[in-house]
Write a sequence for this structure.
């Protein structure tokens, strides 16, 4: 079990599902605050938000950087939601670790061994995303790079692999969940937003992931997906996120899991 | 909705999940009878069994052929379970249609257009498996080959696609289920046995498939998987099948579905 | 060595490269005749032409069928070029074998085992194309299905495999050529037209294939690619084919091969 | 054209093919010196050698690090061969740029955007390898990350992509060469060692690459491949490298290219 904060609802790998939600990129203080409150009301207990964004093109929006880190820290203060954000450069690790509660290693950096070693040296849980065409074995070996430096708090994330199919952005390798559960003690969560690349697929992929044994999800939510600066096609609105969480409840139960406490309250209301 | 027989539990695409189970290949009358009784007790309402087997090597076991067809028809008589079996050659269609209730087109023949046209001309529902590297669009176009000949009773089957990952036999494209549900009225089932290629993955993949919206499953069951002439690694024992069906019940409910009636009785017992 | 006709330039697998060219589909007697004369002048010694076309959609042009077979036989008479054409249905094998000199099994039918067995029973060389996502081992096993019936005259064809890359129609697996040369005595040719799916890639892929050790090529040529009923994007004009053949000459020599005799005459002119 | 050193034989992208050869990892001064002399005699004009090695497992040999850099610089002095070596961490860029003539970005770091930006800031040509499942467009965008910082001297390297085929380590995407030549002015070379992962495939893949239009190769050579600490299966012996270079000569000519001058001398001898 990986404990992101004291609140048991932020512990990943136990009976309670980890629900991480938030915008792809932090675009402004207002949108971040609105999203954080919305996803908390919907049942999320951890806030995701990109400050430094890895983009295929150097000419695309690259994130707000350091100022986004401050916004994340500030909204954490307001909402009580611990923050998960991506680190892309070994030289950023220390600074980001000061502002964030969990460090995300993105798919493109899964075999960035310098970065893996660096996050292995700090006292922050690591969310390690599977590379675009990484095997399960390679994902486990990447986790070893972190743990070999002393940091054992690694959470694995299946986020879809690259295949020939073009109907979806990636192909969610749902079988990776039970395979990983047999091969490692590390918690495994799923990113249904990147896996499908389509907002309409987020809910069914989430239900499938939990049914297959995942310990949680990390999902992109935006107050107004149509105007998102990045990944708008795959972001849920705050309302759609709430609906999905309510529909998730019976699947969580069927899987012998429970949702974070306040999500249960919300669902009952 | 595709009606394989009069029994509503054999209608595919409605509220009741279609549960198709049985051996990869029919190996003998005894094993077929034992399996059929076992899977019926576990909740299956349709019997699968290979008479003509497509094998990568011409020197591997090719199935018992015509005599297996007779065994299937005879066990159908005894158990009341309609029979699903694969047809590989346009010249076999008529004969197999006499003995079987549903004709399966295997993954390797998904774009065997002569065969598709031929099964389009008979009055038997068709179970069309997705090709090893077929796109969703190609699967839908293959179904059109059948329907263009007048036979509208086509059920699509996601059975895993070929990727670089070697931990599993294929990669179950779980997102294909919700994608297909948006693009076609045809029912969609999943084959968790071929997708994972491992008996220990059949249950989690089944739960995930139903959670993602599948209309049923087709699963390989063998009285003694260790001695199966084909696909032993991925076959469930009769007991494991029964356990899985009991565990499936809450996932079916969460998905707004129900199991075939007798499965419910069994589960309650 | 597989001998398609008496002319040594039609023997595949020896020092002389096999050059098979012609239209994707036979569209009319005029276009077929024009193409045949054009490719013969350019150095081809075998004529390809589709009579029965496997198309993803049942509503796309399916080929002229039996009448195209007659046109092919007639143009063979006029030009002396032996004919290679695809067979898609075991029931067609006998008829097509009467009109054609070499039977092609298309990529989608590589594991159509009934069809493979049927062409194994006739006295015609078989051109077996690799399936869209077939492994090299599966290709060799498919050839065994033909040879197990007594027909040893099988030529293998690498035509690109399906990958995530979308810049080309398929990904030419150039390494399959030397791998196959180590694992089988069967001749290996390459289809640069389907591999790349782009006319501008046909020449470089051809040069690469011969440099890697291929025994020949099968290439699509059309008198007016812009108006082709199928595969226009990847068809060479007659003129472009001639240019490519002239440029191929030094690569053939570098590989210890020679072009068919008249191609040499043309190149010298 | 990218000029690695003053010697015209080290300019990449002109009429003369770039031949980069050397060991996967620098294992000792003796083996490096022996290899460097051997590949120079065979016709190489640039020396590759890994100091910092990216390995899937943190427990595998990681390279000799800083001491290897010194060996490379020393052997450059002795042999006159400019040195190409991999940089894995933005904090290493400056140091490595002091010792090496060309900085290699490995496949796993193709989308390590911090690293790309950092090498974009130094005055050293960059060898950018295509990621394991990167599209051609993504490779070009990665090059933009370097060039956007002011460093225009980027050479692209096709080194095989990840597919389902297991007969080879990767699948050399030979069509990427002509596609890239149409889409960018940047030189394109090929790594036949990683593409095939087998020493016996290096020569045919090299011939194919040059025939398809590549501007050169980067190839692994080891004095005793059977005892290599890494990548022994795919390394050529010094003798095999020399043989391959002699056999390459007519293919280079057919492609309108020439080998480095001394290679010609050797070949004539």
């Amino acid at each position: 079990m990986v404990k992101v904060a004291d609140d048991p609802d932020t512990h990943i790998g136990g009976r309670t599902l980890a629900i991480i939600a938030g915008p792809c990129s932090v675009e402004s203080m207002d949108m971040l605050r609105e999203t954080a409150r919305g996803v908390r009301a919907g049942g999320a207990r951890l806030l995701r938000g990109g400050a430094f964004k890895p983009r295929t093109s150097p000419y695309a929006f690259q994130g707000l950087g350091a100022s986004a880190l401050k916004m994340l820290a500030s909204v954490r203060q307001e909402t009580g939601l611990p923050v998960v954000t991506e680190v892309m450069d070994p030289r950023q690790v220390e600074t980001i670790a000061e502002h964030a509660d969990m460090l995300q290693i993105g798919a493109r950096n899964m075999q960035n061994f310098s970065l893996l070693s660096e996050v292995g040296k700090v006292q922050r849980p690591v969310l390690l995303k599977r590379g675009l065409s990484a095997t399960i074995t390679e994902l486990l070996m990447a986790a070893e790079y972190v743990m070999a430096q002393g940091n054992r708090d690694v959470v694995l994330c299946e986020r879809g692999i690259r295949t020939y199919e073009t109907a979806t952005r990636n192909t969610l390798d749902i079988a990776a969940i039970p395979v990983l559960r047999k091969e490692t003690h590390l918690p495994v969560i799923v990113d249904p937003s990147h896996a499908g690349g389509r907002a309409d697929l987020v809910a069914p992929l989430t239900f499938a992931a939990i049914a297959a044994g995942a310990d949680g999800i990390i999902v992109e939510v935006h107050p107004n997906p149509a105007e998102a600066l990045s990944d708008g096609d795959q972001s849920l609105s705050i309302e759609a996120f709430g609906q999905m969480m309510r529909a998730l409840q019976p699947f969580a139960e069927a899987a012998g899991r429970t949702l974070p406490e306040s999500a249960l309250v919300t669902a009952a209301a």
Chain B has ten helices and ten strands. Chain B has a mean pLDDT of 95. The two ends of chain B are 30 Å apart (CA to CA).
